[in-house]
Design brief:
Blueprint (H helix, E strand, L loop, with lengths): L6 H18 L1 E3 L2 E5 H8 L3 H10 L9 E3 L2 H11 L15 E3 L1 H11 L2 H37 L5 H18 L2 H4 L1
Length: about 180
């Protein structure tokens, strides 16, 4: 009898889950965070249940584990997310809480459900993958800067061609190249 979930399928599914988690990570005040509603959905609980558990365990959430969003931060994020459900009870009554990587893991420990424990692994992997990607962009930016300095002695035409290629690479790297 053939196995129901070949190893390739499990790996593909795991990658899809990690990619889904990574797509929900936002940057607030220079920190990568998950909004309470996104984290609750990942953990298979309601947002109110997650926030209630967090309030009951305030000592486990120091300031570097979560951020309370301001009105302007929430409006900015909402415009980026571009999803606004209509109908009664579809709007938030309170500003969301944003959990840092450590806060998201701590939330899994206070929820204490098998799904929360399982998903916390994917959340850690997503944050680690984002760090790796950002580090590679920073390293590439450093190497390009060194290369740019070394071509200063080239003739004007070659230098112009290099500058065009350099600008194209920087635009592909996006804002992460200039963050650090």
């Amino acid at each position: 009898m053939a196995p129901r979930h070949p190893a390739g399928m499990a790996k593909k599914s795991e990658t899809a889950v990690a990619a889904n988690v990574a797509s929900q990570i936002r940057v607030v005040r220079g920190q990568r965070v998950l909004l309470d509603s996104d984290l609750a959905a990942l953990y298979g609980v309601t947002t109110s249940a997650l926030n209630q558990a967090m309030r009951r365990n305030k000592g486990r959430f120091p300031p570097d584990f979560l951020l309370r969003l301001s009105v302007s931060e929430w409006e900015s994020l909402r415009s980026q997310i571009v999803i606004l459900e209509t109908g009664r009870g579809k709007h938030r009554k309170f500003l969301p809480v944003a959990f840092t990587e450590h806060g998201a893991i701590m939330a899994a420990t206070i929820l204490n459900s098998p799904r929360a424990v399982e998903m916390s692994v994917y959340i850690v992997r997503a944050f680690v993958k984002l760090r790796e990607v950002l580090a590679s962009h920073v390293e590439l930016a450093r190497k390009l800067e060194t290369l740019e300095k070394s071509v200063a002695s080239l003739d004007a035409n070659t230098r112009k061609q290099f500058e065009e290629v350099y600008a194209a690479i920087l635009s592909l790297m996006g804002p992460t190249a200039t963050e650090q």
